[in-house]
Amino acid sequence: MKVFSRLAAFAGGAGAAALGAGAAWAGLGQPSPWQMDLQESATPVMTQIAAFHFFLLWVIAAISAFVLGLLLIIIVRFNARANPTPSRTTHNTPLEIIWTIVPVIILATIAVPSFRLLFSQLDVPKPDLTVKATGKQWFWTYSYPDNGNFEFDSLMVADKDLKPGQLRLLTVDNEMVVPVNKVVHVLVTGADVIHSFAVPSFGIRIDAIPGRLNDTWFKATTEGVFYGQCSELCGKDHSFMPIAVRVVSEADFNKWLGDAKKKYATDDSAAHDAVAAARTPAVQ
């Protein structure tokens, strides 16, 4: 009994801690302490992903409860003591029809919203802006092909250079900047090995493969900074190539774009690439 009481106390304490941190379970644009859920949605696609996730959670819970109920019935009613003479039944046509049809219905019910979600993710609307993201060991290079001949590298800020409020392992020196409520078409490729461009609050994740151009899209509906990371093992510093997307108003974006054309048009990208590894900090 003491064991059960201790387990109950532990569960109660964990539940209280979880409730106390409930507001941080699903942060917007970044991970949160005690997070037990998806990050908050900042795009229509991510909203669909979250809805599908919770729909599947209820389906899984119902199936698990049903199977658990059957197991308990079998344990109680059909153990050797309660049922010393077991049934010799080998076929039950109605039962076999039911356990064949019901799983098919469940799979079909799951398939419809699943295909709808896949269509939303893969069918890129007419873009308002195109950004090319190139994964390199171990940082990202961004260019805006429709807005001028410039590009810039985005490297993680070392721990010693972090300012108050900046996130460790996620803050970068140059963020991708996009306007709010605009369809952003992201072209993704790799320069050396396979990387993966992923931003959880946008509901996007696409591999960056050398020699191949993949694409994805998002439409951020709120301003702010949204973080992601390379989600494909790409070498020793895989953990140190974050993604930071700053979503701003259209006026602020146009101002940033004008400044970026001047700032990055004369940058020597090759030289920046050469020192990138040296700027990657070591984990303490």
How would you describe the overall organization of this protein?
With 284 residues, this protein is α+β, with helices and mostly antiparallel strands. It folds into 2 domains: 39-82 and 92-123, Orthogonal Bundle (Helix Hairpins), CATH 1.10.287; 129-279, Cupredoxins -  blue copper proteins (Immunoglobulin-like), CATH 2.60.40. It is 38% helix and 20% strand. It contains 5 helices and 10 strands. It has helices at residues 2-20, 44-77, 93-122, 250-264, 269-279, and strands at 129-136, 139-143, 151-154, 176-179, 184-190, 195-199, 204-208, 214-218, 224-229, 242-248. The strands form 3 sheets. A 5-stranded mixed sheet has the order 3-2-1-5-8, covered by helices on one side. Strand 6 (195-199) and strand 7 form a beta hairpin. Helix 2 runs antiparallel to helix 3. Mean pLDDT is 86; it is low at 1-24.
Structure summary:
This protein is α+β, with helices and mostly antiparallel strands and 284 residues long. It has five helices and ten strands, in the order αααββββββββββαα.
